[in-house]
């Protein structure tokens, strides 16, 4: 950004819902997304849920001429699903995997297997300036009324905020795009925005065009689950572009657009989510601006306290589950010991005197071993969960202390 | 570091080897470490392998008056074992867990269960300056000749280097202390130092006092395994303090010390590792210095290429293991299908005609299910391993491109 003090940056963000064998009309939609991206020529394209590396390779082949730089972030069993296409050289990437991401035994929700993460790229623009887009997906919300994953999502929001705070200074402009799986007024979003000073492109945009309230999951998109959106007739906004300027730059959102249920000129949408497109105006200032948080500190104290309370609720639930799993493992072990003693008794000739009641153990050892292994696995998993929730609660306590002590 | 342009910073680093039930004379040693730390009054204490939270709490209670700020990093099943004690306020912490860390089925090596990580603290000193110590432990080396974990340790070294590059700018001075489980000339250390510009306190120190060559695992320490050190009669150096200055500071290592087998004035050592103690002299400069790498670029290209080759070797091994596990899962599934068909045949009255050879399947379904589950688990694990190794190889390729293209 050396030389010309002004830069217009056009960013495209979309949760592509491209799960092999599961997502409807996947290949057709990925093709449409590629065509549109080539036509529109954005500066930076942030995509989520591109689970198939083949889809990424197809997009890369199609977009090579207008987006010469790209990166696919690998993680978890299935992958992170994150990829970036850029007009500017990508200097460096870093993947940060959240420490908590659902439960491996909740197969129907599948979040655990994705290795949800935040990807960081550092792109060079012009002379010496650079911007650092981060893009991500947080744990999905499956039931708003009884949201068992809220503590995990809050841990992710907190880790994301901390990651952004610690890595921001390496760039002039910080961008965050992705499916945060949180409504704008949710505590996780307020925490993320308050703790990092990131600004919401939808709220700040001079011009807006698209779905009402900037919604990105809407009933009129033919791929969305209508029952999930019943309480929200207009839809919900869970995909965001956030930004902030570091050092001697200012950023302003000139325009924000979303798609509106179908791809322009087509009969199907790009995805079950709407795409978010922002045009940012970046300007170099004369002098370096100090780091400021956009949320006043007393309000931030309230937000962190609220988040900490929720994490505490999750912590106590995890402790109960760890205890139950541990108890089951101990019971299975005791059963095995009883069986082993009975077998030993029989071997050493005590069997004739019948010191133990006649119980039928046929086949039981295998079941007991199975239960023991399963319960031990669960116990270990919930031990990790407890540790991560405790760690986050402790970090939030530290943040509150620093906030309250600051003049 | 505002106001006084000079600062002397005394740092203590030790791998405490404090594993409950396993480490010899643990409580006595932790007590000795606490006494010494209170007596010596360092500015910053970085401890690893404090696996028991009770030990951390005991240390915290003992050290509260001279080190009012402390933090314990939680991760994995057992924990990260990392904690920090500081004379200066800790503003913020962040834990980065490596994506690869050994194998869950290598129970005797146990690294997988520790959730090995790098902890980052940001400490405020004086007016506005701050320093950011990072402390960590990398995957242990169990056999130098046939080191199956080398690719994992290289992934960790690379992720650590990337993490340091991306988070460095948030502080004035970056410190790294810990048990890197690598000899000074190993490719992982050269990669870490070359890619981050960190300097080795041992190599740079004006004065040195301690074990020959700065070794931190020595044969005369009564807790070390003598057989492991047979090829190295003087011992090996695997614990380090590294540093670099960001922005307008310079750092110089005035003195480096190690313990020499026993705790001063005692008959036992603090740990099976020797402690490393550095005295750094930090000075504010008039103007901001540019970011420089200490290793010349052509040499850095060689180092990254060498590391990438090793990661490639690990990748091919992981692909082979993934393939074997997948094949075993398919075989187990086929066996189950054959059994199910046989059972179905018997049920539908076909049994009388004996369409299948008479095979004894008694108890077999359970075994087949067991093998299927185990092989599937292994397949998933090695799939993750392949993805992370591929991701690291890709990042290194990108780094090489940037290095080769830079003027």
TrEMBL record, chains A, B:
Associated pathway: Sphingolipid metabolism; Lipid metabolism; sphingolipid metabolism
Tagged with keyword Transmembrane: yes
Chain's gene name: Smpd2
PANTHER family noted in UniProt: PHOSPHODIESTERASE, PUTATIVE-RELATED, SPHINGOMYELINASE FAMILY MEMBER
Domain Endonuclease/exonuclease/phosphatase: 15-273
Superkingdom to which the source organism belongs: Eukaryota
Membrane topology according to the record: Multi-pass membrane protein
Organism whose genome encodes this protein: Eurystomus gularis
Family classification: Belongs to the neutral sphingomyelinase family.
Membrane spanning stretches: 329-352, 364-381
GO biological process, one term: sphingolipid metabolic process
GO function terms (MF aspect): metal ion binding; sphingomyelin phosphodiesterase activity
Localization: Membrane
Signal peptide: none
Gene3D superfamilies: Endonuclease/exonuclease/phosphatase
Alphabetical list of InterPro entries matching this protein: Endo/exonu/phosph_ase_sf, Endo/exonuclease/phosphatase, Sph/SMPD2-like
Listed name of the protein: sphingomyelin phosphodiesterase
GO CC annotation terms, alphabetical: membrane
EC number assigned by the record: 3.1.4.12
């Amino acid at each position: 950004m050396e030389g010309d003090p002004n830069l217009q940056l056009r960013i495209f963000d979309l949760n592509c819902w491209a799960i092999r064998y599961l997502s409807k009309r996947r290949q057709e939609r990925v093709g449409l997304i590629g065509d549109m991206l080539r036509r529109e020529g954005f500066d930076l394209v942030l995509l989520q849920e591109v689970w198939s590396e083949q889809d990424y390779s197809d997009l890369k082949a199609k977009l090579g001429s207008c987006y010469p730089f790209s990166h696919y972030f690998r993680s978890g069993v299935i992958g992170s699903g994150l990829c970036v296409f850029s007009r500017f050289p990508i200097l460096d990437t870093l993947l940060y995997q959240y420490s908590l991401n659902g439960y491996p035994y909740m197969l129907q929700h599948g979040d655990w297997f994705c290795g949800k993460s935040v990807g960081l790229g550092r792109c060079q623009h012009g002379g010496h300036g650079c911007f650092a887009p981060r893009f991500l997906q947080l744990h999905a919300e499956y039931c708003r009324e009884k949201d068992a994953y809220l503590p995990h999502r809050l841990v992710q929001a907190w880790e994301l905020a901390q990651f952004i705070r610690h890595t921001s200074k390496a760039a002039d402009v910080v961008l965050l795009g992705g499916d945060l799986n949180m409504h704008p007024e949710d505590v996780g979003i307020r925490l993320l925005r308050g703790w990092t000073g990131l600004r919401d492109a939808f709220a700040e945009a001079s011009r807006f065009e698209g779905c009402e309230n900037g919604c990105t999951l809407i009933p009129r998109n033919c791929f969305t689950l209508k029952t999930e959106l019943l309480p929200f007739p207009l839809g919900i906004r869970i995909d965001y572009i956030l930004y902030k300027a570091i050092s001697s730059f200012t950023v302003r959102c000139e325009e924000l657009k979303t798609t509106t249920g179908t791809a322009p000129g087509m009969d199907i949408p790009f995805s079950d989510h709407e795409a978010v497109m922002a045009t940012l105006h970046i300007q170099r200032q004369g002098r370096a601006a100090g780091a400021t948080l956009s949320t006043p500190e007393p309000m931030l104290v309230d937000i962190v306290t609220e988040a900490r309370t929720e994490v505490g609720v999750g912590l106590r639930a995890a402790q109960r589950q760890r205890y139950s799993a541990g108890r089951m493992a101990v019971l299975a072990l005791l059963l095995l010991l009883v069986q082993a003693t009975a077998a030993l008794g029989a071997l050493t000739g005590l069997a004739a005197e019948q010191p133990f009641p006649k119980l039928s153990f046929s086949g039981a050892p295998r079941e007991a071993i199975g239960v023991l292994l399963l319960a031990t696995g669960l116990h270990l998993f919930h031990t990790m969960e407890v540790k991560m929730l405790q760690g986050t609660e402790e970090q939030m306590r530290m943040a509150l202390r620093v906030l309250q002590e600051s003049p």
